[in-house]
Design brief:
Elements: E1 2-9, E2 12-22, E3 33-36, E4 41-45, E5 54-57, E6 74-77, E7 82-87, E8 97-102, H1 109-113, H2 119-134
Parallel strand pairs: 2-4, 3-8
Antiparallel strand pairs: 1-2, 4-6, 5-7, 7-8
């Protein structure tokens, strides 16, 4: 689902887009590869217990928040273009991974591919990357 919010600042209208991703019962994210624009927000919703959001790689790791707590709604606004790799901490080794591609920018994809993952998670990541590239 995508929702639009209109914020009025002086004489300007700013449109912010929010993408909602749920934790599913089968240990996955409801949207595994998301394409968003700079300034868009992603919100992870705890529709199923035992999950969180942990970023493993992105254009600027220092700018990303710490891991979210389990079973808590988590929201991030993406201000830098590039590819962001995240996982559910308890289920990452089993392949509960997601990609956020901001502004269709793949400049840091090499860094994403270098992240050390379990064999299963690495295989899942390669599938996610193929999907992301097919959406270019």
């Amino acid at each position: 689902m995508r929702f639009f919010f209109f914020i009025f600042l002086s004489w300007q209208v700013v449109v912010a887009d929010t993408l909602k991703i749920e934790f599913t019962a089968d240990d996955s994210f409801s949207i595994e590869v998301a394409n968003i624009g700079v300034g868009d927000t992603t919100e992870w919703l705890p529709k199923n217990e035992g999950h969180n959001v942990e970023f493993l790689a992105g254009p600027n790791m220092e700018a990303l928040p710490e891991n979210s707590e389990l079973n808590i709604r988590h929201t991030i606004t993406f201000d830098l273009p590039g590819v962001y790799l995240y996982q559910c901490t308890p289920h990452g080794n089993m392949g509960m991974l997601g990609l956020i591609v901001v502004d269709n920018n793949f400049d840091n994809l090499g860094k994403i591919e270098e992240v050390e993952l379990s064999r299963v998670a690495k295989s899942v990541l390669q599938r996610r990357i193929r999907v992301a590239k097919s959406n270019k």
